[in-house]
Amino acid sequence: MLPIVFLASLCLKAASAWPLFPGPHSGQPHGPGGRALYIQDNDPAGNNTIAAQISNDDGKLSNPVKIPTGGKGLARLIAASQDSVVVSGDYVFAVNAGDDTLSVFKIDPNQPTNLQLLGKPASTKGHTPVSVTYSEALNIACALNAGDEPGVACFALDQQHGLKPLPFFLDIAEIVPSPPPGPLVIAADIRFNPSSTALFVTVTGGGALLGDVYSWPIHFGKFSNNPNNNTLEGITLPFSLNFLGSDSKLFLTNPHLNSDGAALLDIATSGEVAHVQNVTIPGQVASCWATYDPTIDSVFVIDAGRPVITIVDADSGKVTSQYNYTTSVSGTGGQDTKVDRNFLYVLTVPVDGDLELVTPPQVLVYDVSPLQSGATPREVQSFDILQIVGKLPGATGLAIYPAARFT
């Protein structure tokens, strides 16, 4: 398997070290009113999902609980991917990178911090799963393996018994040679498009390698054997995939130091990238994570290397504003992020150069409604997870129930 320290440092610290080379659903959520946020601690002794209540009034977090996933985490696997924890409908999906499995929970809509593990964690048929996606239309979940057996394993969801493996594996060994050419090649994100007619994966480059955005067309529930290989000039670290309300628009982060930082992609019906518009993020160090807010038709971009939130207009690709915040460790920023109603949630995991926690992980909560009148977002909470649930080996992923339907 790939060295863990390199897996963990993909976005948090390795970006600065790499040389730069030239839907079927409505927008309404499920649930009778209960809201919750989910992350995972990635504990190698036993991975846990941490669920916290979200106030319907002011967006603040409270009353977190730890629920074992039944799998194992991977020590210091921090900042390696987007979508390691995903909510869809009344289900939470979580990858277990330490034992190469995927878990699924049923959410109690009346008390969404109450999770029921369905069945046993399912093998992802490869090494180091880092990201997961689920299509309600297809009733299929797919997990992305980023280790030395890279590829995608997919599962049907049985509402009583959990994940049932499907009889195929989307191999990306041709993308990442076996053995991989050093530790700086890894897959980072996986997404179905909103209409569930294609599956997308980002595979990062390294050295002289350009990164790729791969897509598998899906016809009548069957995945194509011939994926589209979208190699994008100048995009060495395609990281997070963020659909902008339709199949045809995709926001892609590129957290390579001295790169533009992101790109807007026009996607053809075939799943091929038809056009690339680079998005220049001033001062970007490692702009890894992003989340789309349809209310203001904008993307929030989080930089792992500095405490700055960048807001990008989803139509023009222009940066409309940037806002600083405070972290407990110099030279670090935020990680996973999601927007829910008028609130932005950002996970911060302050670590040292060896990717050891220096201070407890926190979730920052911002009221972003002032943006609609041209004002500045307002921090409403800095939620210290450790003080509530006890010592954590780490924290990764961020998902919210009810999940939005526009990405």
From TrEMBL:
It comes from the Eukaryota. InterPro entries: Quinoprotein_ADH-like_sf (IPR011047), WD40/YVTN_repeat-like_dom_sf (IPR015943). Keywords: Signal. The keyword Transmembrane helix does not apply. Residues 1-17 form the signal peptide. The keyword Transcription does not apply. This is 3-carboxymuconate cyclase. It comes from Zasmidium cellare ATCC 36951.
